[in-house]
Design goal:
Largest sheet: 5 strands, parallel
Distance between the termini: 47 Å
Radius of gyration: 38 Å
Helix content: 40-55%
Strand order of the largest sheet: 2-1-23-24-18
Number of helices: 34
Strand content: 15-25%
Shape: globular
Structural class: alpha/beta
Length: 948
RNA sequence: GCGGGGGUACCCAAGCGGCCGAAGGGGCAGCGUUGAGGGCGCUGUGCACGUAGGUGCUUCGUGAGUUCGAAUCUCACCCCCCGCACCA
């Protein structure tokens, strides 16, 4: 085959596979089934080689299992519900230049870009309808998928499936409604996840502040100063308040009270409470220097000016606890130096001379831990970064180790145990209110400032439910997790980390909640048991079953065997077929996803299966894949443009080479550094190996009646390679498998060909046919071609995996060739050291029988005097004693060859030595040798004599 | 902070108590082939010494320990990565 053609065979075989439909899987009760499903992709943009790697993991497994005789179901669908595509489409609609440029750069034709302003067109484009799509990617790399089962989560029929699930989950009590704070975009009116906000806003969390209502009278009317804190217990240590005179404040009506808030806080407050009424402007300057009353301690504290108080964080009213808050301490110290400011607000110096109030006992610290930490760290001025560190330090220690003092209502209690109780008590007594804010400012990708909205009728999945958790843990226990190191992490998520999860939102691409049409099922929550849908999607697609007919009773029957087929709107025999498919294929044997999905998709899958299906239908295996990084260690992604689209690869080079390169790089679950340059290099390198492989495969060889040591050796090694590949595949260690099936075989075949003048035709043919088959899961296109060229029947994709025959394993031959290699190395070394460049003769002296006897005797633990009683050894005299000492010193080496075996092996490899060193080679027995050095011969290590 | 995973020679990456100076791949070097380059084949690739296949020293993040013996086990320390949700 022309080297240039390597890439052409890929398309050819993909076409033939498709025509023959060999990856289409139907119920076949005569075969054991294997059902694997990868996380279906979310088509948010163009694909790249990072995606390819993830799916190639599945493909190798699917192909291997097929060859091992399993009926393999390997389907794919498209997760189109969600926001990213919607947001992108909107941006295109608005004409956002960056978005449009990026898409063009990624290869979307100009005239197409405009069309993508429709979110449905957008997802279709990247799911299936373009060269940049996931489907194109999967097809181009040769994934052996049953495409008849393909579906999109925005299909009406799939929505029916989701509605069935949620109706049933609600009936089971796992879906409930309650109040919940979410980060919210006031413009788009929807909750914001990390994907929806600008980069610098990512990671923002909802923080629950306790706002203590300090009291002050202004113009005869009471105004409350809601001082927001994350440490409610510190209210006992307040010495003063801080307001920022520069900041815009308002007084708002909240319930029947009047609250002082920064304008920002007021705007945000409206989303959290219904009873916030219009406002009047207020200048903080009016009350700075006055006193207000601590609602808990009833103590009057002074209000001080502070320019560090921010308008976009919390309430704009800050209570100061200098004994435990480094920031407050430094602020007071700083203020003491600002005579001008004090004068401006008419604050006497003595008014700042108050004692701090320590309220937490902390081992190793005095009354005021904050002051000590600040001193330790050498902080003298308002240095934000340093103070942040100091605050963290103090908080960590006090929270974990501190106990409250007598001045609080909770003397002796540990802070971490009492914190929530303090909050509850204060709220109950009406002294404080909850105020939510984001942990840092949030800017939505639409440009709006994010707020916290208190949704009062939020639908939840009750993942906190103990019984549900326990069932999920049972499921996990019965499932294989590969690699098992992730089991602990999953356990932790299921058992502890998972809490109630909002499962619906107001605006998204997706499915309406069946029992509350104002809500859409949140996109992660519609992707939990979709694997079950693959078992029926084939029938739904083929029979064109309209969505209206797929009501709950259909799925009740198909998945649960509940109810009567007669009552369904789908024909009875079709329904039975669906039921049959489900019963045959389910449960799923292997569910594959990335590490980033452990805490969501995979955990949800476990929860929902546990809730909806009985134990016999619970997933049997969870497998994790790693991701692809570029040379700088960044994730390969569409937005960075650091990945290859598969079409580019297919045009320029061999997909199979890329596949092998990816498999060989590291275990499937580890991340690999595989940037574009390295992809190029790898493809080039492996392609050239392919060319050599092609050459080897086509060697005819010669008809020979007997098998020499090399023949027996290569046959034996092929058994081992097959076995090793198989073992590795059973553990999903693709890297190891490829190392055996490709590199190790390659090296052995190369060796064999180098050492033999001409291969033994029958032996070589057998070797090649084995090789092609064990390589087929990894480089399927090439192997199909070779299979055909070497006269294989049908598709290698459907060929049987070679049976391992342990009778063919020939240890003597393996030892023989190994001996040959050692001798070769030794000869080389001797040549090097002695400078005898071109010896005319090489004598190989095989060690004497008695040495072998002595060796095994020593291994059995015999001592010298015992041995010397025997004639055989006594005859040797001193030599025997010396050798005995030597044997005692060396650690045992197993598998001693006997004299005849060693002689034969060396004789058989004589020609090869002669060829290699261009010298006459003589093999002889130690007993018969005239050479002085003959005595150096050891079992398995002949004496070597070079002669000029 | 919580939870999980890691640090192996120039690089990637296996190994997880003795067979480990440490698989495999890449890179690099030498030799051969070739019209040079490339490619291909062979060989080498911790250091030192050696005119006979050897010997000595040294190495698996750092330090200490267990053991006849440690890259592998224990402890402490340093460093790196991932997830922390309502978002795919």
């Amino acid at each position: 085959m022309d080297p240039e053609k390597l890439k052409d065979i890929e398309k050819k075989w993909q076409k033939r596979w498709k025509e023959a439909g060999i990856f289409e899987a139907d119920v076949d009760r005569s075969k054991e089934k294997f059902f694997l499903a990868h996380a279906y992709p979310y088509p948010s943009g163009p694909t790249h080689h990072g995606h390819a790697r993830a799916y190639l993991f599945d493909d190798a497994i699917a192909r291997y299992k097929r060859m091992k005789g399993f009926n393999v179901l390997y389907p794919m669908g498209w997760h189109c519900t969600g926001n990213p595509a919607m947001i992108k489409a909107e941006k295109i609609h608005r004409g956002d230049r960056e978005t449009i440029e990026k898409l063009k750069e990624a290869g979307v034709p100009e005239e197409e870009v405009v069309k993508l302003k429709d979110p449905y067109k957008y997802v279709r484009f990247f799911a299936t309808e373009s060269d940049l799509s996931y489907k194109s990617c999967l097809e181009t790399v040769g994934c052996s998928i049953d495409w008849r089962r393909e579906f999109m989560t925005i299909d009406d029929s799939y929505k029916k499936f989701i509605q069935w699930q949620y109706s049933r989950l609600k009936e089971l009590g796992y879906v409930q409604q309650k109040e919940y704070p979410v980060v919210w975009c006031p413009v788009q009116e929807m909750p914001l996840g990390d994907n929806d906000v600008e980069d610098e806003s990512q990671g923002a969390k909802v923080e629950e502040y306790v706002a203590y209502k300090f009291k002050i009278e202004v113009d005869g009317k009471e105004v409350l100063l809601p001082a927001a804190t994350l440490r409610p217990e510190t209210v006992y240590g307040v010495t003063n308040m801080f307001l920022n005179p520069e900041l815009d404040y308002v007084v708002a009506g909240v319930d029947d009270e009047r609250w002082l808030l920064s304008r920002g806080a007021y705007e945000k407050m409206k989303y959290q409470r219904e009873d916030v009424s219009p406002i009047e402007e207020f200048s903080a300057e009016d009350i700075i220097g006055s006193y207000c009353k601590n609602p808990v301690t009833k103590r009057d504290v002074i209000i001080l000016p502070a320019d560090f108080v921010k308008g976009d964080s919390a309430t704009g009213v800050v209570m100061s606890v200098p004994a435990h808050a480094p920031y407050d301490h430094i602020a007071i110290e700083e203020l003491k130096k600002r005579k001008d400011v004090l004068k401006k607000y008419d604050i006497g110096e003595d008014e700042l001379d108050f004692d701090y109030i320590g309220l937490i006992d902390l081992e190793g610290y005095g009354k005021y831990p904050a002051v000590e930490v600040v001193e330790e760290m050498g902080i003298k001025v308002l240095d934000e970064d340093k103070l942040k560190k100091a605050t963290k330090e103090v908080y960590r220690k006090e929270f974990h180790k501190g106990t409250l003092r007598e001045i609080t209502a909770y003397p002796g209690k540990k802070v971490d145990e009492i914190k929530d109780k303090v909050k509850e008590d204060m709220l109950a007594r009406g002294l404080a209110e909850i105020y939510y804010d984001t942990s840092k400012p949030v800017v939505c990708k639409c440009g709006a400032i994010g707020v916290i909205k208190l949704v009062d009728d939020q639908w939840f999945l009750k993942y906190s439910d103990r019984k549900w958790k326990d069932m999920s843990l049972d499921l996990l226990e019965g499932a294989d997790v590969v690699p098992d190191k992730y089991r602990k992490e999953l356990e932790y998520y299921l058992d502890e980390w998972m809490g109630d999860k909002p499962c619906a939102r107001k605006k998204t691409l997706g499915t309406e909640l069946p029992f509350d049409k104002d809500w859409m099922v949140e996109p992660l929550s519609d992707s939990t048991v979709y694997m079950a849908y693959y078992t029926v999607s084939k029938t739904i697609n083929q029979e064109n079953i309209e969505a209206e007919r797929l009501d709950g009773s259909v799925f009740d029957y198909v998945f649960w065997g509940k109810g009567e087929p007669e009552n369904c709107k789908v024909e009875k025999d079709i329904l039975k077929e669906m039921r049959e498919e489900f019963l045959y294929w389910y449960p799923i044997d292997m569910r594959i996803a990335g590490t980033e999905h452990l805490s969501n998709h995979l955990s949800f899958m476990i929860f929902h299966h546990a809730a909806l299906f009985d134990e016999s239908k619970w997933p049997r295996g969870i497998t994790i894949h790693g991701m692809v990084l570029d040379e700088d260690g960044n994730k390969v992604s569409a937005s960075k443009g650091n990945g290859y689209n598969m079409k580019e690869i297919a045009k320029g080079g061999s997909i199979d080479a890329m596949r092998l390169g990816m498999y060989a790089k590291s275990s499937p679950w580890d991340d690999i550094k595989f940037g574009k340059k390295e992809v190029d290099r790898t493809i080039e390198n492996i392609s050239s190996r392919f060319q050599k492989m092609l050459k080897y495969v086509m060697i005819e060889g010669a008809e020979e009646d007997t098998k020499d040591v090399l023949d027996r050796w290569i046959l034996s090694k092929m058994q081992r390679h097959t076995k090793n590949t198989e073992d590795a595949m059973e553990r999903l260690e693709l890297m190891e498998a490829v190392n055996h099936a490709f590199y190790a075989v390659f090296n052995d075949v190369k060796d064999y060909i180098n050492k033999k003048e001409s291969p033994n035709r029958r032996v070589f043919k057998k070797v090649i046919k084995t090789w092609i088959r064990i390589l087929a899961p990894f480089a399927p296109h090439l192997c199909e071609e070779l299979w055909k060229k070497t006269g294989g029947d049908g598709f290698v994709s459907q060929a049987e995996w070679p049976e391992v025959d342990s009778d063919v394993i020939d240890q003597a031959a393996e030892r023989g060739v190994e001996l040959g290699n050692t001798v070769e190395g030794d000869i080389r070394e001797i040549k090097d050291i002695t400078g005898l460049e071109k010896p005319e003769q090489i004598r190989l002296v095989v060690s004497a029988e008695w040495k072998r006897k002595m060796k095994s005797a020593v291994e059995e633990g015999k001592d010298l005097s015992e041995l010397m009683e025997k004639d055989m050894f006594r005859k040797q005299g001193k030599r025997a004693a010396h050798y005995f000492q030597e044997l005692k010193g060396e650690h045992e080496r197993e598998g001693t060859m006997d004299v005849e075996e060693e002689l034969q092996a060396l004789e058989e490899m004589k020609e090869w030595f002669e060829e290699m060193f261009q010298a006459e080679v003589v093999v002889e027995r130690e007993e018969k040798s005239q050479e002085d050095k003959a005595g150096k011969a050891r079992p398995g290590k002949p004496a070597i004599v070079l002669k000029n």
